[in-house]
């Protein structure tokens, strides 16, 4: 039931407005009458009506002044102006003050009822919108996760993506770093204990990621349908992304006592998100199918590829096997030799870094673990087929 306050200084008209209809039939309850502007102001502030009938010409405080005062206190209230002045200037001022309608005396009963019906419909619509907004706000984290999970499958058009991002306040703009994290479990984990362990471990991993990425605004983190943790960081560059992921991986593995597989990439076109996600998931799945020894070696290479001194002997010592045995297992499981895998990781990272117009070739070489630009250029051309300088020029021309 909507509440109505009548502000009219003429008793006959005031009573006429009150009894013009059985307002209860229109979901309206009359909560009071005021015979001047000041009285109306006090009553409105105290009673907070949904609808007000307001006479333009009242003592102490006229209708326009009353509306100006009340708009601050009752931003959603409906003002229906009742006026003896058939003057466009008054009507214009009333509309400016937020009047819902402007009715000329003598008041036509049918016109008044129609106006009140429109007013209640407007209030109902506003009420529904507020309830939906509150529900949206309360469920926003869940709705965000659901949207991001569905987005992974590429089931949205560009217009739908932008619409959902705006609705859910997802600030995914510019260059976006995407990472996929997966906890590697042992083969003996099973049953109900496995379910709870997975839930608790993923919960802990999410908290670790949030803590380490706390300095970055607008980070979005969600768990996909396969239990992978997907992280989106707007406004990050590849070097920062790799550094943060290494920190997350190191901390999580120490804290959780589990191996963590991580894959990352950059994108700036929102429509490229599903493709990038699929590629990273493939990379993560490949890592998960490896033996614990090769996985540990691979993870070590992925984290330390930028160190100039990294070698097969060093990695073998880390996983506590002989260099010969490790070399054989890497070849069997990855399909390429240790040095080929190390080169592949370095060149893949270099391909991303080269896109940065502010980085020189020798700086990229150093950042991916090559002690000299010559050695880097040779490895790059062997893998990609062209020199890094030519590749960088092509990136510039495409931009």
From TrEMBL:
Q: Its domain of life?
A: Bacteria
The record's section on SUPFAM superfamilies has:
CheY-like, Homeodomain-like
- Domain Response regulatory: start-end pairs: 3-120
**InterPro entries from the xrefs?**
CheY-like_superfamily, Homeodomain-like_sf, HptR, HTH_AraC, HTH_AraC-typ_CS, Sig_transdc_resp-reg_receiver, Tscrpt_reg_AraC-type_HTH
Tell me a Gene Ontology molecular-function term this record carries.
Answer: DNA-binding transcription factor activity
Q: Can you say where in the cell this protein is located?
A: Cytoplasm
- Where is the HTH araC/xylS-type domain positioned along the sequence? 295-394
Q: Which residues form a coiled coil?
A: none
Instruction: Give the record's keywords alphabetically.
Output: Cytoplasm, DNA-binding, Phosphoprotein, Transcription, Transcription regulation, Two-component regulatory system
Task: Please tell me whether the keyword Transcription regulation is annotated for this protein.
Answer: yes
For this chain's UniProt record, which GO biological process terms are given? phosphorelay signal transduction system
Q: What protein does this entry describe?
A: DNA-binding response regulator
């Amino acid at each position: 039931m909507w509440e109505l306050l009548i502000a009219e200084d003429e008793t006959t008209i005031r009573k006429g407005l009150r009894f013009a209809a059985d307002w209860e039939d229109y979901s309206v309850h009359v909560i009071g009458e005021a015979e001047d502007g000041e009285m109306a102001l006090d009553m409105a502030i105290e009673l907070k009506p949904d609808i007000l009938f307001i006479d333009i010409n009242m003592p102490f405080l006229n209708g326009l002044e009353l509306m100006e005062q009340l708009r601050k206190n009752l931003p959603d209230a409906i003002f229906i102006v009742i006026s003896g002045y058939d003057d466009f200037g008054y009507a214009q001022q009333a509309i400016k003050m937020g009047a819902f309608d402007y009715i000329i005396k003598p008041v036509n009963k049918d016109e008044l009822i129609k106006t009140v019906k429109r007013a209640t419909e407007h209030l109902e619509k506003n009420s529904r919108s507020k309830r939906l907004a509150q529900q949206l706000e309360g469920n926003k984290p869940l709705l965000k996760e659901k949207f991001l999970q569905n987005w992974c499958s590429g089931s949205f058009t560009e217009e739908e993506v932008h619409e959902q991002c705006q609705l859910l306040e997802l600030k995914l703009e510019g260059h976006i770093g995407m990472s996929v994290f997966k906890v590697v479990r042992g083969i003996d984990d099973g049953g109900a204990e496995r379910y709870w362990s997975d839930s608790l471990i993923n919960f802990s991993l999410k908290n670790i990621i949030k803590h380490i990425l706390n300095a970055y605004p607008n980070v979005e983190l969600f768990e996909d349908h396969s239990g992978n943790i997907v992280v989106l960081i707007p406004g990050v560059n590849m070097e920062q992304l790799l550094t943060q992921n290494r920190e997350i991986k190191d901390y999580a593995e120490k804290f959780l006592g589990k191996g963590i597989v991580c894959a990352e990439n950059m994108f700036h076109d929102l429509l490229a998100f599903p493709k990038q996600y699929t590629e990273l998931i493939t990379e993560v799945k490949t890592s998960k199918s490896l033996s614990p020894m090769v996985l540990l070696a691979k993870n070590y290479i992925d984290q330390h590829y930028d160190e100039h001194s990294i070698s097969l002997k060093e990695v073998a010592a880390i996983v506590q096997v002989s260099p010969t045995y490790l070399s054989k297992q890497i070849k069997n499981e990855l399909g390429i030799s240790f040095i080929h895998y190390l080169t592949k990781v370095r060149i893949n990272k270099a391909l991303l870094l080269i896109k940065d117009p502010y980085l020189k070739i020798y700086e990229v070489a150093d950042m991916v673990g090559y002690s000299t630009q010559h050695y880097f250029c040779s490895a790059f051309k062997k893998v990609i087929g062209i020199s890094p300088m030519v590749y960088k020029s092509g990136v510039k021309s495409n931009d």
